Input
Amino acid sequence: MNIIDGMKTKVLLFGQLAEAAAPEMEIFDVRDTDQLVQEINKRFPVLSSMHYRIAVNKNLITENTTLTNATTVALLPAFSGG
Amino acid sequence: MNEVKKYKNPFLRGAIAASFIAEKIQGHQTKTDIGAHSIFLGQVRADVINGKKVAAIEYSAYEEMAIEKMHAIREETFSKYALTCMHVWHSLGNVQAGEICLFVFTSAPHRKVATDACSELVERIKAELPVWGKELFEDETHQWKTNQ
Output
């Protein structure tokens, strides 16, 4: 089964992560969030030492999560509103 | 099929004016079952960090997620506390030191419910909303704010 071929994940970055890398990017053909992070770190090595939480379709995740087509993943540094 | 969601948007551009706050208080005078309002106002502090003074904070947010999260917090707060009303506004973009960046307003028949709910809302907003503050110094450098 080659259903992940051509799969696209939209990645949004915020705060200091957007400043250090880019506010958004598209990553192709990664099947889960661990692979996604590896791919992002390859493109932007500066991110590998930065701390953040991950939201998949606006829900925070705490462990490796499978991605389906057209998923939006957000990389969220520590919140500092208010 | 996605439902069309019409959640309240807590964000407004720039500082929250004192006149805006006054209007919101005025607007509640017709609701005569209310006996107590509790208001929290967050103000941008001119911290001095390594000899540099904060001139303003530039706020940004993951707005879509924050609006959904705020909706969930709102629902949970209404089910936990017997509130008559609850309103939250948070600034985006630049807010100068001394200006208001967060306005939380709860109303109830009696004071304890209003003050407890207001206090819990402020804590949850700071901890759970995907919002970031960039502290802009007078010399045009910056650092990213951290919440205590």
Notes: The interface with chain B takes residues 12, 14-16, 55, 58, 74, 76-82 of chain A (CB under 8 Å). The beta strands of chain A are 8-13, 24-28, 53-56, 59-61, 71-76. The first helix of chain A runs from residue 15 to 20.
